[in-house]
Amino acid sequence: MDAALTVGHPTVMTTTLIMVPVSLLLAIILPGNKTLPFGDLAFYAFAIALMVPFFKGNIVRSILGCSLYMVTMLYLSTWLAPVITNVFKLAEYNVGTVGLVTSVNCGLWPVALFTILLQSIGWIGLVIIGVIVLGLLIYVNKIKKPAVQ
């Protein structure tokens, strides 16, 4: 099962349609942003479909949450644009006179967070965080019994 099952939900569609102009407006007014998300507008429904259940179908909360997500994605795509452009050049893809190539993709944030953490705290710190998260997951799922409702 994936996001395609929930894309047709009315809240997902409404939020997606509202987020298109909101995203473009955010891209224009955010200081330091150098990304316009034109190519990624078609993929919003899939990212939003994963957020709407978290917000329990509330359109206002979904729009606020998606706006925060969009701000993060715009800044991450601006920050990663030189790296992505170099990858295109290494693959001998002709970027022409476009300048920098980037993507405001739905799954970009884990890679960017991993990169930021790796640069800030190094491999040892990343392994320590991984062990802590794994320990917490084991605690929540095995040791601490959830209350049955």
Report what the structure shows:
The protein has helices at 10-29, 44-51, 59-90, 108-143. The two termini are 26 Å apart. Helix 1 packs across helix 2. It contains 4 helices and no strands. It is 64% helix and 0% strand. It is flat and about 60 Å long. The chain is mainly alpha-helical and 149 residues long.
- The rounded distance between the terminal residues' Cα atoms is 26 Å
Beta fraction of the residues? under 5%
Mean pLDDT: 78
Helix vs. strand class: mainly alpha
What Rg do the Cα atoms give?
18 Å
Low-confidence stretches: none
Largest sheet: none
Shape: flat
Number of helices: 4
Order of helices and strands: HHHH
Helix content: 55-70%
Q: Give the total of beta strands.
A: 0
SSE arrangement:
Blueprint: H1 10-29, H2 44-51, H3 59-90, H4 108-143
Compact description:
This protein is mainly α and 149 residues long. Helices cover 64% and strands 0% of the residues.
Keywords:
149 residues, mainly alpha
